[in-house]
Amino acid sequence: MARQGSATRDGQKDAYDLILEAIDVGIYKPGDRLVESELAERFGMSRTPIREALQRLEIQSLLTRDGRSLIVASLDHNQLSELYAVRTELEALAARLAARHAAPEEMRVLREMVTQDRKLVGDAQAMARANRRFHNQLHLASHNRYLVQQLDLVYRSMALMATTSLAVPGRDREALDEHEAIVTAIEKRDEAAADEALRRHLSRAFETRLLLGAGEVPAADALSLSRDEEAVRS
Ligand SMILES: [Zn+2]
Questions:
Q1: pLDDT digits over 134-161, tens only?
Q2: What CATH code would you report for 1-74?
Q3: Distance 206 CA to ligand 1 centre (A)
Q4: 47 C-alpha to center of ligand 1: Å?
Q5: Where do the CATH 1.10.10.10 domains begin and end in the chain?
Q6: Model pTM?
């Protein structure tokens, strides 16, 4: 994957990516304080790369200052709507381009991901990671590097959404069915169907997130996430 700064030469993720991923999968949530020494210990790194990564994330507005501490920024309702609007248009374009340009091997990888990801149903954190992998693969299948870069920016900001919509009971299974519909359309090289399936998927994701934000649906995995968290800490 051609993401800038995604890995060091030996394939190890750098501090920036590790912190971003931890925010992305909900280990650190909006409002949480990020402490240099704790991060250094968690990732088994010295404090210098952690400090540099935190500075970079602050410049990108993914972290904000609260007095002397750095906290994970959060998105308000308007930012969330704006982000979904951009994400939907860009990803619909990616889906159409993937239907046109994806290599047979890429289609098989997407199909295999949907099959494999069904084993992760019920594990919100694993599903969030799997969802991210699926969308990344979809972006790459568009064979448009500028689009991949723009989507990368959008996904970086998306890490600031408090909980994954996949933590809502039943939503993970539903999301996988939607992924499958996208893959089927791409396999048929049906650009209009790929566009439509992608829009339906993101519309449902957005709706679920709004319901979650309004407290209308419970995030079933909030407890198990914090238990995982304990396991990681102890
Ligand atoms: Zn998805």
A1: 999 999 999 999 999 999 989 888 877 7
A2: 1.10.10.10
A3: 11
A4: 34
A5: 1-74
A6: 0.75
